[in-house]
Amino acid sequence: MDYERDLIEIEATKEAKRRGIPMLGICRGIQLIVVAFGGTLHQDISIELPGSLDHSQKAPKRTNAHKVRLNENQESLKS
Fold this sequence. Notes:
The protein is mainly α.
């Protein structure tokens, strides 16, 4: 965790939204976007949602652990 980095990136995220710049967050990035717009994070999703994908990566750090799919029809963040 880096408090100063978080503050800068949250402000940059909000500014990107104000300017209409598309954003894609992966891992920490999506967590930051959620927090920037008032969302909630859960420390352990498996407790909140039994049967969910295991996010404790057991593979080496630079190995893909699971696939990510993008759906162009998803609704974007709106305020």
